[in-house]
Specification:
The protein is of the alpha+beta class and 693 residues long. The chain is built from 20 helices and 22 strands. Strands 14-18-19-17-16-15 form a 6-stranded mixed sheet. Strands 6-8-9-11-10 form a 5-stranded mixed sheet. The two termini are 55 Å apart.
């Protein structure tokens, strides 16, 4: 198969391919959660078996339609396995082995989906996995012999679909059927779903015709299918129940009407393509009385869809966010235009105030649209804990708290890897072996808590374990050996000592394993979290456990800032970090012998950072009593920033700095930049970075 090619020979802009990726990703995520939940209970419920069978049937059909045969064949083998479990209900299944097979298959499909997204060859070899799954199925059949023939699908449930009177199940050489399929309102891309139905039927039929005929290349076919349903005429040797069972597996199926025809008279209209026409009279969607009482009467199925949720491409959201940001800047350019100085336009102030209100509402709405719950990211950690526990021979329980907490989607993308590292480290480094835990008076099963909660304009993600904790002496010893100490050990707090493990190349692991000991991982955590303006805090008690807190901003796009003047330059300080601002008194200033400046505020001393010295800015205001002090705090540490004057509070759009500037040591402490109303640029201060200077 050609690289990343779907049916039409094109790639990323193909709606069929986009829909395939979206639905398959959702299906395997749901599948993974089902497997993990049932494995914990040590048995698979019949409901779970039915759902897994349905998911694999869907993935099989859609993958075959897109010509991704390696995925389709693997899904088919799992479908066969769960069909056996569904029909025969064997006892004493090794759920652990069953889960391993399915999860390995999930990993394979994930890898292939990533290849599709990356426009690479979808060339993974699933043959070994398929052979193992088939071998497991053979063993199950040998251990659970049955006189019942289960090779052919037999409908075991009463169909919920309306079926006309003639449903003869007699198997003949040639059976003729007419089927009409109605998809759920709002499912979108009905023509592609119709094509999937035809593709799934091709192995069961001798001849097949459908109306509308041109379902792929004609957009009009979508409206026809919505209004009148998708009609299929089938010639086959299969029975009524076999065709019915196959059609019932259609994803987003709302209603199905299946009739067995007495002869092939209706097939005559397909003698030539010119005779294929769509009936003028609308097809009525059959309803039961109960359905009719619950559902509103719709005259036009295709045009009266009342959807409450729709899917939107992420790039469109990003573009909309950029436009809102530009609107905020444009508003500032109008309301703060230098040409307006000295004038008092009452109507202009009124109009600008109204514009500001609308801009704020727009900003709030787009920010809320971009907010994504942490639940999916948190749920992925279940798989990591499960796999590592099995490989390391440990018993670990993961508890999730506050997974409904929402953060900006861009932040979600940056914290997935850090969370994975932290959870892996908690299982590998933190949680002890069962024997060691019992010897220490602890429960045999270790516990990891993954919690998220809001804290003002920040989100806190807490990873807590009841393991052996961190050894301060061992950390200090390794830091000395690698020359990683930046100040006297006596001056370091416990939190600062524990934070040494975040430095590149630091590791207290004596042996290298599959999971750790190479001195990588924790520095990746720190780097990724700081990339989105967050911080990492570490607390630990030896023998009791460790707690790692990730402090993250709710959003990265637009912030409330205080603009300050330094010489001819402007800097913006995030409002959330400011404790107070004041003009200092000479009596409160302290200068140490080594030149460091401090200020006494209500009996406590705080260091002073002169912005003009930090960034080599020329200014006439160098006397501390002539300027302004802004006291800022982050991560429980406080400094006093000295500037010429306050310019005022303003909402600013955060623009990231280019990498070649970020890597310059001289600009340490800068989080980005923004455009002010007069067209000038203001640099946004990174308070956490300044505190570390």
């Amino acid at each position: 198969m050609k690289e990343g090619v779907g049916l039409s020979g094109q790639y990323s802009n193909e709606p069929m391919l986009d829909m395939y990726i979206f639905e398959t990703t959702q299906n395997i995520e749901q599948l993974e959660m089902l497997i993990l939940d049932n494995e914990k209970a040590s048995f698979y419920t019949q409901e779970a078996i039915n759902e897994i069978f349905r998911i694999m049937h869907t993935i099989k059909g859609s993958s075959a339609m897109m010509l991704f045969d390696n995925i389709s064949n693997l899904a088919h083998s799992i479908e066969d396995l769960f069909y056996f479990l569904r029909e025969l209900k064997p006892q004493n299944i090794d759920c652990s082995i069953l889960s391993d097979f399915v999860l390995e298959s999930v990993d394979f499909i994930k890898a292939e989906l990533q290849k599709i997204k990356d426009k690479c060859n979808v060339d993974g070899d699933s043959s070994i996995l398929i052979a193992n799954i088939k071998g497991f199925l053979v063993r199950l059949k040998e251990e659970n012999p049955s006189e019942v023939e289960i090779n052919k699908p037999v409908s075991t449930n009463q169909p919920r679909y309306y079926i006309k009177k003639d449903n003869s199940q007699a198997i003949q050489d040639n059976n003729f059927f007419e089927a009409t399929i109605y998809f759920e309102n709002g499912c979108e891309m009905e023509n592609i779903r119709a094509f999937s139905v035809i593709h799934n039927l091709k192995e069961l039929v001798k001849e097949i015709y459908y109306i509308p005929e041109n379902i792929i290349d004609s957009d009009e076919s979508i409206e026809i299918i919505r209004e009148k349903g998708f009609k299929i005429f089938i010639k086959t040797s299969k029975s009524y129940d076999e065709i019915n069972e196959s059609l019932k597996q259609t994803i987003f199926l709302k209603d199905l009407e299946l009739i067995q025809l007495e002869n092939d008279e209706k097939f005559e209209q397909f003698g030539s393509k010119s005779q294929i026409v769509v009936e003028v009279s609308p097809i009525k969607v059959p309803q039961t009385q109960a359905q009719a009482s619950k559902e509103p009467q719709e005259k036009d199925v295709g045009t009266s869809i009342n959807q409450s949720i729709i899917s939107v491409n992420v790039t469109k959201l990003d573009k909309l966010m950029d436009l809102i940001g530009e609107m905020v800047i444009a508003e500032a350019m109008v309301t703060q235009n230098p040409d307006l100085k000295g004038f008092n336009f009452k109507n202009f102030r009124k109009a600008s105030h109204h514009l500001h209100k609308i801009t704020l509402e727009l900003q709030d709405i787009i920010m809320s649209v971009r907010m994504v719950p942490l639940s999916m990211t948190f749920q992925k950690m279940n798989r990591i804990v499960r796999d590592m526990s099995k490989k390391l021979g440990k018993e670990v329980h993961l508890e999730l708290i506050g997974e409904e907490t929402e953060v900006d989607k861009n932040i979600i993308e940056h914290i997935s890897d850090p969370l994975m590292h932290l959870v892996r480290n908690a299982v590998d480094h933190g949680i002890e072996d069962p024997k060691d835990r019992e010897a220490g008076g602890k429960p045999k099963t270790g516990k990891i808590i993954l919690e998220a909660k809001n804290a003002g304009s920040d989100v806190l993600i807490i990873i807590k374990d009841d393991g052996k904790g961190l050894n301060k002496e061992k950390i200090l010893k390794r830091a000395r050996e690698n020359d990683l100490l930046i100040k006297s050990e006596q001056e370091m707090t416990d939190r600062e000592i524990y934070s040494l493990i975040l430095l590149p190349g630091f590791s207290t692991k004596d042996t290298i394993t599959e999971f750790s000991g190479r001195g990588v991982g924790m520095d990746v955590v720190k780097r990724n979290i700081e990339l989105v303006g967050g911080t990492v805090l570490i607390d630990s008690t030896e023998g009791i456990g460790s707690t790692i807190t990730l402090k993250l901003p709710l959003t990265l796009a637009i912030i409330d800032g205080m603009n300050v003047k330094v010489g001819s330059s402007c800097y913006t300080i995030p409002i959330t970090t400011i404790k107070e601002s004041f003009r200092p008194k000479e009596s409160d200033l302290i200068k140490e012998p080594d030149g460091n400046e401090l200020i006494m505020v209500r009996g406590k001393c705080y260091p002073i950072l002169r912005l003009h010295q930090q960034y080599d800015i020329k200014t006439d205001i160098t006397n501390l009593t002539e300027g302004i002090i802004i006291m800022v705090e982050q991560d429980e540490r406080t400094i006093c920033i000295f500037a010429d004057a306050l310019l005022g509070q303003q909402q600013v759009v955060v623009k990231t700095l280019p990498n070649y500037i970020k890597n310059t040591r001289k600009i340490q402490g800068l989080a980005g930049c923004t455009l002010l109303g007069d067209g000038s640029i203001s640099l946004i201060l990174d308070i956490g970075g300044l505190i570390k200077i």
